Amino acid sequence: MAEVRITGVRVVDLRFPTSRESIGSDAVNKDPDYSAAYCILTTDSAFEGHGLTFTLGRGTELCVLALEYLAQYCTGRLLSSITKDFCAFSRLLTDDTQFRWMGPEKGVIHMAAGAMINAVWDLYAKVEGKPLWRLLAEMPAEQILAAVDFRYIDDAITRDEALAILTASSDGYDARLRQLEAEGYLAYTTSAGWFGFSDEKIRRLCREGIADGWTHFKLKVGGTAEDDLRRGLIVREEIGAENKLMVDANQKWGVLEAIERTRALLPLNPWWMEEPTNPDDILGHARIRREVAPTRIATGEHCHNRVMFKQLMQAGAIDVCQIDSCRVAGVNENLAILLLAAKFGIPVCPHAGGVGLCEYVQHLSMFDFLRVSGTMENRVIEFVDHLHEHFLDPVVIRRGRYIVPQMPGYSIEIKAESLAEFQFPDGAAWA
Amino acid sequence: MAEVRITGVRVVDLRFPTSRESIGSDAVNKDPDYSAAYCILTTDSAFEGHGLTFTLGRGTELCVLALEYLAQYCTGRLLSSITKDFCAFSRLLTDDTQFRWMGPEKGVIHMAAGAMINAVWDLYAKVEGKPLWRLLAEMPAEQILAAVDFRYIDDAITRDEALAILTASSDGYDARLRQLEAEGYLAYTTSAGWFGFSDEKIRRLCREGIADGWTHFKLKVGGTAEDDLRRGLIVREEIGAENKLMVDANQKWGVLEAIERTRALLPLNPWWMEEPTNPDDILGHARIRREVAPTRIATGEHCHNRVMFKQLMQAGAIDVCQIDSCRVAGVNENLAILLLAAKFGIPVCPHAGGVGLCEYVQHLSMFDFLRVSGTMENRVIEFVDHLHEHFLDPVVIRRGRYIVPQMPGYSIEIKAESLAEFQFPDGAAWA
Questions:
Q1: Contact state of A69 with B63 under an 8 Å Cβ cutoff
Q2: Pairwise CA distance, residues A170 & B319, whole Å
């Protein structure tokens, strides 16, 4: 690898006024302005590393300020000095002796760490001339493990167990790679079922979705019981029994209410119930799961670190692990979570949408298929069709599947003109 | 109550350069500069409401920025419009539809909510002319419950169960009040056992502590096994078998290591082992507790909300509940946690120290004694002898006990000259 030195970090408060059209509305997040604290690592070469953490508008300035603080841990460093001991770099960000008090490893400061770590991976992949999924997939197991922080999870997965998982993946690797490049990775659509959409709009979007080749549809629930069921039956009617319908309550309910409301949706035959209650409630999810079986339980987009994911798995709380590319500390922590999920035999179906999440997570699922779980069975990546036009290397969806990205990097770089237009509060979009 | 309108919020980034003397050092927090995001609610009367959230220096600016954002939810409001439906006010701060994405209810934004909610309680108590503990203790049960958010905890404690706890407390109330005013509340000292102190200093401070009437001593551990044991034996030798020694690892270990290291400290006969592992690891704490019995397990200072405290109790993970006055959303959320602890029969021993934590938590423990748990058995409040000179109404300790505060308010108001001197980065202390 060419020696590249990181010379500076530019941070942008980027906000898209999506709330003007009720895009992304759900039972809890009623008016999101899809936004990001966005950072650019400048270097002494032609390469830049880009990374972002996804936010909903107000408060993005907090993640921006956190990124400006964390910039000191990148600036001036050789890229290779980071990548050769990537776990140590991650700990620099998460273990700052004063800053960590506001976590540790959660919320604003952890999301900022995620943006920065992802930017380093973007830079690394660009310098190596590979899309991130391929960079990871072609890495020796030992190098992958050197990026993983086993602290606080080694009671659930040891380094040796993780090594065994990665080593076993060489069996059938070539066939999986051919399959992935030929077929892509199955996606599901959330675009038909936002909370703010009318019955007619849902029906029309389901029909269009079926025509476009979609097989998995998600509906936002958490309204009245009658509304939820009626809307769900419309989706089921339109997509038929052979396709999948998932429902998502976005944390709306307490544990007991979640049990009652999930049971009431059984006539929809949901493929999963997502975020039935508070994201911190591991034992609550476990109880809900026991009491609503056979309905499967999914969560993760608000799960703030690997210690929480570990417990969701240990407690038997989830059937589906929904990793998020931004909320945890970037690629490194997601490697830990993918390995935990493989150990526990839980399928990973990433959270996406927002801005940049689809671009990010496709790489993680493809790597998971090639090197960790080794399967795409019961696995789908969320897709929402917003804001992709702002990316240099946007996701490509064909007949309900993610097509494998080929451009070097982590696909997260936003066009310079979009950065200028949507910069908050000075961009033209906010004038 | 006189009608008082909140006219504005002033936020101060306040930092004390305590790291210059290794004060507050432990195995993880090696160089804290005890700090606070501090807010002042100005009103159309002579009263002001003061509140702070405790931080360790760098990053305080994030909580300051969050407080400046949350100020909109106070400004212009009648105090009575907040206090008559205090839970609704708390939800305004925690449920902001865009801001909550960076939580929910955790980290920077939740700590800021805590400072603001505490400031409202300070104002409320001043207007009522009572110290906070008395304001709460004299409140009708229904009014106390109107401040509690039962969302996400009603699977563990119902409103009716909480009402029964508060109602039962009328039995013996007068006797408890007399006892409290006569005896104060038992404290323990952390000042003798900081991580950075030499053996000689620990020995000297223990002797001084015994001479001053202290009966409970805490030692920071998490160094080498030999160092921890040697230092612990020094404390035990100095304080004797009849006094209590607690050990505190400040999250240093993984679960398996914590089990091994806690067992190794059994010769010290520790009264509790505090923060043996990651604060998010509910199941980890439960496993440690099972495997190190009879050593008792304590945690809570990094427990970020009532949903996590609920699970620590449901999982049988803790013997001692260490509430923090700042990390959760202020008095309201601590009311929920006190009620949960009473339901589960777990003693509350607050985390204190830092700046202002002792001033705050004495009120919560005294209220707990008078109206919730009804007992001081096996309960102690942490005490650290730093920075009290900056407060208008500092804690008073006599022979190892907190003396009941009498000045109206939440005892958290810092002298104007201290605010000026330690304001970061412009105060004289930082010049």
A1: no
A2: 47
